[in-house]
Amino acid sequence: MIDCVRCGETFVFTGAEQKWYRKRRLSQPKRCPDCIAQEYGGAGVIS
Question: What is the pTM assigned to this prediction?
Answer without folding.
Answer: 0.70
